[in-house]
Structures are given as structure tokens and as C-alpha cells.
Amino acid sequence: MRTRGAVLREMGLPAPYAESRPLEVTELELAPPGPGEILVKVRAAGLCHSDLSVIDGSRPRVMPMVLGHEAAGEVVELGPEAHGFQPGDHVALSFVPTCGECHECRGGRAALCDPGGKANAAGTLLSGDRRWEEPLHHHLGVSAFAEHIVVSTHSAVKMPDGVPFEVAALFGCAVLTGVGAVVNSADVHTGQSVAVFGLGGVGLAALLGARLAGAGILVAVDRIPDKLELAKELGATHVVPAGDDVVEQVKQATGGLGPDHALETVGSEKVLAEAYAATRRGGTTVTVGLPHPDRHLSIPAVTLVTEERTLKGSYLGSCNPPVDVPRFVDLHLEGRLPVERLLTHRLAVEELNEGFDRLAAGECVRQAVIFGD
After folding, report:
1. Would you say residue 122 has pLDDT above 80?
2. What integer is the mean pLDDT of 21-33?
3. What is the pLDDT of residue 134?
4. Is the model's pLDDT at 373 over the cut of 90?
5. Measured between alpha carbons, how far is 205 from 207 in angstroms, rounded to an integer?
6. Residue 267 class from Cβ within 10 Å (0-12 exposed, 13-18 middle, 19+ buried)?
7. Overall pTM surpassing 0.90 (yes/no)
8. H or E stretch at 349
9. Cα Rg for the chain, rounded, in angstroms?
10. CB 67 within 8 A of CB 8
């Protein structure tokens, strides 16, 4: 079938992207779904820093690629053996297709699915195939910035019809990554102190997750004043502007000791080092950011022992999407996880390049491309 999508053919074009136009919206040919796959009409797709990291080259991927990985839409057609779905189903899409059968999946670590990770690195679907007729690659098994896409059923999770598509899309990345990092990776308990470094979509989702988990002191850190104000509205007890004295300010906000848990969501080894330095003795530092593979972290190694510190990574919020997405959606529908507050802009697919300029400048939280009927 013919459809339209946004293709990235070359990484590293200079900003502003409104001028260099790295994303080309063009007509594409999409093959039908294969075994275990579904055709989805995309209704909304979020702009995430992980997309920007591919555009600017700090997250290298195979080229050319139909970009985007956070989306929600409606099932249109089933491939053979596409069990569990029907045409008309509303779905959110996860950026890690979890096979359910590999060592990691069977061990309860679906975010580290081995076949899913290999397929994502190769720019294919979970099957190893590509459904774009040109030599185009899939982005993280989704390719969200297109009107129609083919995905593995292992990338899709059913959503209630009552959740707006632009909100449903956020559950596939921002919510899984941010909320999951708090409740799964950090395992925050009632009354503990939490600091979140970076208040983009994932960082503010983490803040929502920390409030949900019952954090006592909740510190939000960012360089953008508007994001600090939004963090206050969403439950932060303290806000700290990013700067040279950020570590000391976070410690002061937590009684001089530092937080029990510090989460870094920026994708900067410098910010991760600050989050680690701010964490209290015996505390846990969790990172979900994705720096360039060439970047390295330097910390005082002895503190891991003498202060019984924990430093851990969290990919996809250490979530199992078929389990955690419905759990988080239920909390949202109960009013306990106001994910809709993360949406700051809605745009057309032709405005993607301008949207990524806005994201790079920190002038938004989550933007959503809205696809019409």
C-alpha cells in the first residue's frame, strides 16, 4: 500500500532543522504484514529525545530510516498468526519487541529481549524482515512517523478506546521509561526521597511515578524555568536550577544527606556524574539517558564499596510492556497518573523538523504528531 512517512536519510545535519530539513515527508510503499505482524493506522506519535539523538548522530542507527518510536493507533489488518488482535483494536506501541521466549524474557527482563535488541539494531522487525519496499529501515520496530506502519504483535499492547491517541502514545516510551525507572528499577518506597535530573517527557513521567510511589521529598532539576514550574504543579517539593552548585543544592533540599534515589534522564555523562555525587550514602542512582557510545563516566570507584552505593541502568523502565502498560493505564484512568499533563504541543507531520528544533532547545515537554482520518 502507499502511505506517507518521515524518512531520515543522513544523520548529523546541522541545526536548525527547520532549515537543514533532515526529515523528509514523502510517499512510501509498505508491504502487507507478515506472520505475527499487524498493519496499524497511526493516529498519534510522540517526539522523543531518542529520535533527536538519531537525527544529530549521537545515537547511531542504520540509514536510511523511517523515524519515530512512540505511537498509538488502530489495527487495520492482521498478518498470518497475528494472535490476540482484531481490526479496530486501539494499540500503543513499545520500542522493544519482547519475544517472550529468550533467556532474558523468561528471566523476567523483557526490556533486554535478545531477539528484540538485535532486530532494533539492524533496523528490522522482530522477524528480521523489513516491510518498507525501498531499502528503508524500521526505527525500533515501530517507525512511528508514518500514516501506516507494520509492526510485530510483540510491539503492540491493547489500549482502552477511551484513552485519546496522543495520550496513549506516551505509554509506549515516556511512561514505561520514566515511571518504570521509579517503580521497577529504583523500587522507590513510601517516604523515601527522590531527585530527578532532567524534566523532559521521561523525567516528568519519572516525577509522576515518584509521587505515585509515595516519595516524601521530591526534587526536580532542570535548566529550563518553565519545566521547573511544571514540576511543582506535578508534585515536586523542591526545584533546583541546573548549574555549578546543583549537587550541593540537591543535598540541601534533602536534609544535607542527598536523596535515597537519584534518576538521570538527560543522556549526559556529566549530569549522570552529578546525580551520582548527589545521591546519599547507601542510595541508588538510576540512569535512563542515552549518551553517545563514545562518552565515558568517571566516578570515585571506592564509593561503591565504602558508601554501599548502587549505580544501575534502566532500559524501557525495566518493564514488561504487556504487563506494565495496562497497569499504568489503569492508574491513569483512576486519576493517579496524569500523563496528559506531559503534552505541550500538537503538530502535523510536515512540522516535524520544527518540532525537533523546539525539543533541542528545551521549549517543550512532549510533542505529538496528530494524524487525521
Report:
1. yes
2. 97
3. 83
4. no
5. 5
6. buried
7. yes
8. none
9. 20
10. yes
Tell me which amino acid residue 53 is: S
Please give the grid coordinates belonging to residue 103. 533467556
Q: Is 317 left (phi over 0), alpha (psi -120 to 50) or beta?
A: left
| Angstrom distance (rounded) from CA 12 to CA 296 | 21
- Least Cα distance to 240 among 248, 250, 230 occurs for 250
> CA dihedral in degrees (243, 244, 248, 252; nearest 10)?
-30
Q: Residue type for 97, please?
A: P
For residue 143 the three cell numbers come to 517507525
Q: What is the pLDDT of residue 110?
A: 95
Q: What residues have CB less than 8 Å from 337, skipping those under 6 apart?
A: 175, 179, 208, 209, 212, 328, 331
Assign domain 178-315 one CATH number from 3.40.50.720, 3.20.20.70, 3.40.1180.10, 3.50.50.60.
Answer: 3.40.50.720
Which run of H or E residues covers position 204? helix 201-212
Answer yes or no: CATH 3.90.180.10 is held by domain 2-172+338-370: yes
